[in-house]
Design goal:
With 954 residues, the chain is α/β, with parallel strands linked by helices. It has 36 helices and 27 strands. The protein is 48% helix and 13% strand. Helix 28 crosses helix 29 and helix 30 packs parallel to helix 31. The longest helix is centred in the middle third of the chain and has 36 residues. The protein is globular, with a radius of gyration of 30 Å.
């Protein structure tokens, strides 16, 4: 069996991330592991834009060839990229792929004709994937005619009859197998391959389908496959099937493979001494997060004569280094890393009496805190534990830390040389900026390094605000701190070497860098401006030349939206994946009378200031908030403010007036006992449970004070709104997110490790409760046909319409997500008519397969955080590919760059994914921009099928 290793594909989120960040180690490691597992070829696919694809392939191929001689399978949809990458390979390999589509075959076959290169050939043509065995065989014969023309032997071809999804085509296997048999009958020496995982898309427990397909396809003649060679179950199935099909004489290959493996598993390297054995036990207990065993292991190591300092440094800190690496490689996830840090902390407590003062050799002292206005602590706590696990002393200032407090503590602790700042909200990024700016101005600046991190933070933002370092996770933060310590900075700074320095050397360095980059920067800036000019010229947007007189605004008795029935029809088709014409477009424009006030600054900030619809301009004094209770609970002022917004804006495209009455995302937790903390820019649900012991079953409580306030707010707002606009369904939140509010995120992670069955039970209780509350709000806000609008997502659906999510999933393993979250989401989805799933942040992408298996999810909304690339950019195609392939619609927020950039970015996404299952949310804009945009959309984005959709044979 020819194994083509599939783990170096840019469509895999971790590989895409490695490509974007030029993480050479991950590419090398994946190549090495697949080669050692016995791959025949290593598939290398960049999955990037074509203008950078060849350079990316070169980088990846060079890295692979640094660690293995296994031949490369060059994988790209572009024939020209495949040809361009051939010279980078040290030895002939495999090209993936050709077909009768376009000129692919005539581009690649002439280049490889007189070489030893092999080639994958797909049985498709310009009409897509043939729907029958007969039509696929016709394509096959066309390919073989071309092979004969270019003198390419059948033995150099790997024919892919193409696997379609079983859940949408029950003949998927039989058509594939029939093709295999006919091809092998005509050309016994030819190879037959497949990307077999397509067969199981959209089905639960996909590995069962994949393994069954492998066996049956091999029986039909398939002798090559694109699979994960490190997947022991799949590889075992391949070896066993070969033996059963009489392709392994006397089962010698099977015996050789698995006798060696059995011996490998049985054989253990005996520790040299009892002390070594005890030290290894400490290492393993730390790595595996054995909180209740670590104390005994440490004590036994001490009793066996192990040096206490070695126990700390080699046993525990050494284990944590492995934990950090495994976390970065997504071998383990946040709960396992947190458990390891907790175990080490418990081990250190046992070890402390045996360590002489200073013997442990602290790596340095770090001041840690979450910036003012931000009450998130889970990320900060995890970073703190990883700092401690790396040998640092940590002064944790907690959350919502004022700038003055950071400065005070740095002055007080001369030994502190690193200040680590966390921000988890986009609304507290300005606070992070201000904190860094204040620290940079202090006399102690030269003796500290400023590290920043948090979900909305990026390297670009860190550079912009002047931070010394940005790290994306706790493991990386600990590594960076260790770099500072190992460079000698921490020790020298703590010794006072930089006290009173004027930072002259650093300033000179920066000056040199500035001068060196000056020309480059100017050139880049000129290039960017030129590109913008070209875009503007191509789009020909000129505000003065746009005629807005054709825009019909509602009259005095018509509410705030014209053609509402037409908009509803577009939404109905969107949910049914049969939208016609252009995509759904949420376009909200400033009316001409407020255009002169649109400097981009809202009158007030705050959670309910229409963050997804637009801004207030020239807001009358009587409509301004008086306090937080007034802001969130005064129905008359909330509705009056929104009426003012509607009167100064026009709802065009598929936008419509809808009032958000959230108490913050996650109000279900408040109905179950959490107290709400209302702040200007966010809402916080305070932890109310120290454990689940003695807590009765979670049940519906109609007398809960927050529920009574919220349901009354909904009633009052609906009465005041009348038929003029929708009152939105509040964002209740669901599943483990609710538990995290009740127990705190960190304790919920420990619960998931220590009491997983109890967590499962409580999630089921929340799932059962959800509709007790949802239905009561729904009965108030539903329209005459039973439809409702849902919070900030600007969606309407005919019937019960919800947004589902699980933000906590970013910290969960795929296995735990499938066990605890997927069943809850599936149950909720089955009870409503339309579901939009809100996927929040790159760390949640790993659950895409599990999500797409839920039939009840109709559409996917992705957010990378406002600091990250917006939804139209190629960074996130890996998400949309899976959603569209699974038959879901997609919801995309557009916000990067200027008006022309919005259009250019949407051009790309429409061209790839088509116009029929796409919702676009645009920023507030001028009336002229809105008219130009909608006209452009009608002309350029109507009834576009999409290249990716066509590639799926739809």
């Amino acid at each position: 069996m020819i194994i083509i290793g599939e783990k170096l594909n840019g469509s895999i989120p971790s590989v895409a991330k490695a490509i974007a960040e030029k993480d050479a180690d991950l590419i090398r490691e994946r190549a090495r592991m697949q080669a050692e597992a016995g791959a025949t070829f290593l598939d290398v696919c960049a999955s990037v834009e074509e203008d950078v694809e060849v350079e990316t392939l070169k980088w990846m191929i060079n890295l692979v060839q640094e660690v293995t001689d296994t031949p490369i399978c060059v994988d790209s949809p572009s024939a020209r990229s495949c040809v361009a990458a051939i010279p980078f390979c040290k030895r002939p390999g495999l090209i993936n792929s050709v077909s009768l589509e376009g000129d692919k075959i005539d581009t690649i076959f002439p280049v490889i004709a007189d070489t030893d290169w092999e080639c994958v050939a797909l049985l498709c043509d310009n009409d897509g994937i043939p729907d029958s065995v007969e039509r696929r065989m016709k394509v096959f014969h066309g390919i073989m005619e071309k092979a004969k023309e270019y003198n390419i032997a059948p033995s150099r071809l790997h024919i892919d009859p193409l696997v379609v999804t079983l859940s949408t085509d029950q003949t998927a296997l039989t058509v594939f197998a029939d093709c295999c048999r006919q091809i092998k009958a005509e050309y016994p020496e030819i190879h037959i391959t497949s990307g077999l995982s397509n067969i199981s898309f959209g089905l639960p427990v996909r590995k069962n389908i994949n393994q069954a397909f492998m066996v049956l396809a091999m029986n039909a003649g398939m002798d090559s496959a694109i699979v994960d060679p490190t997947n022991k179950n799949m590889i075992g199935m391949i070896y066993a099937t070969n033996a059963l099909l009489e392709q392994d004489e006397y089962c010698l290959k099977y015996i050789d493979k698995f006798t060696a493996k059995a011996a490998e598993e049985v054989e253990t390297a005996a520790p040299a001494t009892p002390a070594d054995e005890k030290m290894m036990a400490v290492f393993k207990a730390t790595q595996d997060g054995k909180n209740k065993e670590i104390g005994r292991c440490v004590q036994e190591a001490i009793d066996a004569g192990c040096d206490p300092t070695a126990i700390l440094n080699d046993g525990m800190i050494g284990a944590m280094a492995v934990v950090g690496e495994n976390f970065k490689k997504e071998i383990i996830f946040v709960p396992q890393m947190l458990a390891a840090a907790r175990a080490m902390k418990a081990g250190v407590e046992v070890l402390k009496p045996y360590l002489a003062t200073g013997e442990a050799g602290s790596a340095g002292t770090i001041i840690l805190g979450t910036v003012a206005g931000d009450l998130h602590d889970i990320g900060k706590n995890l970073v703190g534990m990883m700092f401690e696990s790396a040998g640092f002393e940590v002064i944790d200032l907690g959350v919502d830390v004022p700038i003055e407090r950071f400065i005070e503590v740095v002055k007080e602790h001369k030994e502190a040389t690193i200040v680590a700042l966390s921000a988890l909200l986009t609304t507290t990024m300005p606070s992070l900026r201000d904190t860094v700016a204040a620290l940079l101005k202090q006399p102690f600046r030269n003796r500290i390094k400023i590290m920043v991190g948090g979900a909305p933070i990026s390297q670009e933002f860190a550079d912009e605000i002047g931070a010394d370092a940005y790290t994306e996770d706790a493991a990386s933060a600990a590594e960076k701190a260790k770099e500072y310590a190992e460079s000698g900075f921490c020790a020298r700074a703590a010794a006072g070497e930089f006290d009173g320095a004027d930072n002259g050397e650093e300033a000179v360095t920066e000056e040199k860098v500035q001068k060196a980059d000056e020309g480059k920067t100017e050139t880049e800036a000129e290039g960017k401006e030129q590109k913008k000019d070209e875009i503007k010229a191509a789009l020909k947007f000129d505000k003065a030349s746009v005629d807005i007189s054709s825009v019909r605004l509602p009259g005095p008795e018509e509410g705030y939206k014209t053609d509402w029935e037409g908009t509803k029809e577009k939404f109905r088709n969107y949910w049914d994946h049969k939208n016609t014409g252009r995509p759904l477009m949420c376009v909200i424009a400033r009316r001409p009378e407020v255009e002169s006030l649109s400097d981009g600054t809202p009158v007030e900030g705050g959670y309910l200031d229409q963050i997804c619809q637009g801004k207030y301009y020239n807001l009358p004094e009587e409509l301004k908030w008086k306090d937080m209770e007034d802001k969130y609970q005064n129905a008359e002022r909330i509705v009056a403010r929104y009426r003012y917004f509607c009167e100064t804006h026009a709802f065009l495209g598929e936008s419509f007036p809808n009032l958000n009455i959230d108490f913050g995302p996650g109000s279900l937790a408040s109905y179950l006992g959490s107290e709400i903390g209302f702040k200007e820019d966010t809402v916080w649900f305070n932890k109310c449970l120290d454990s689940w012991d003695g807590v009765p079953k979670l049940t519906f409580d109609p007398e809960n004070k927050w529920f009574k306030k919220h349901i009354q707010l909904a009633k009052d707002c609906q009465a005041l709104a009348g038929d003029d606009f929708y009152v939105d369904m509040p964002d209740l939140m669901e599943n483990i997110d609710v538990l995290a509010s009740l127990r705190g995120a960190q304790d919920t992670l420990f619960d998931l490790l220590d009491e997983p069955e109890k967590v499962g039970e409580r999630i089921q209780e929340v799932t059962d409760l959800y509709f007790e509350y949802y239905d009561r709000f729904y009965d108030i806000i539903k329209d005459e046909e039973g439809g409702n609008a849902y919070t900030v997502f600007q969606i309407w659906g005919p019937g019960k319409t919800v947004k589902l999510q699980c933000d906590f999933s970013a910290m969960m393993s795929p296995e735990d997500f499938r066990t605890y979250i997927q069943p809850s989401l599936r149950t909720q989805a089955e009870k409503v008519d339309h579901v939009l799933y809100h996927l929040d942040g790159p760390a949640a992408i790993k659950h895409m397969d599990a999500l797409m298996e839920i039939d009840g999810i109709d559409a996917l909304q992705w957010t990378s955080g406002d600091a990250g690339p917006d939804g139209t950019l190629p960074d996130w195609d890996v998400i949309y590919d899976k959603a569209i392939a699974a038959g879901k619609s997609i919801w995309v927020k557009v916000y990067s760059g200027e008006f022309e950039d919005w259009i250019r970015n949407v051009d790309r996404i429409v061209k790839k994914y088509g116009s029929h299952s796409l919702f676009l949310l645009f920023p507030e804009m001028s009336m002229e921009q809105a008219v130009y945009l909608l006209d452009y959309a009608d002309k350029n984005w109507s009834d576009v099928k999409g290249t990716y959709v066509e590639s799926l044979g739809r």
